[in-house]
Backbone:
């Protein structure tokens, strides 16, 4: 059987494509982890907002206000909270 003339080139191209597929899969995994983390932070932030609304309507202690204020400060530092 006659050897394919550019067999070595085809082999290199195939290896290169496999490397790129692996890199893409790794980047997609990292992206999915970031998205999951962002969604979790947004969920927590929305819960805090709802809790604050409830507290504003029903009244709250200074200790509770301090706790929520500190939590919102942490979220702002992480860039996950914008005044809305």
Residues:
């Amino acid at each position: 059987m006659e050897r394919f003339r550019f067999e070595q080139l085809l082999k290199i191209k195939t290896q290169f494509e496999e490397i790129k597929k692996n890199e893409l899969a790794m980047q997609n995994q990292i992206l999915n982890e970031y998205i999951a983390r962002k969604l979790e932070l947004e969920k927590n932030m929305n819960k805090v907002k709802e809790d604050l609304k409830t507290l504003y309507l029903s009244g709250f202690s200074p200790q509770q206000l301090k706790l929520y204020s500190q939590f919102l400060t942490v979220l702002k530092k992480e860039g996950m909270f914008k005044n809305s």
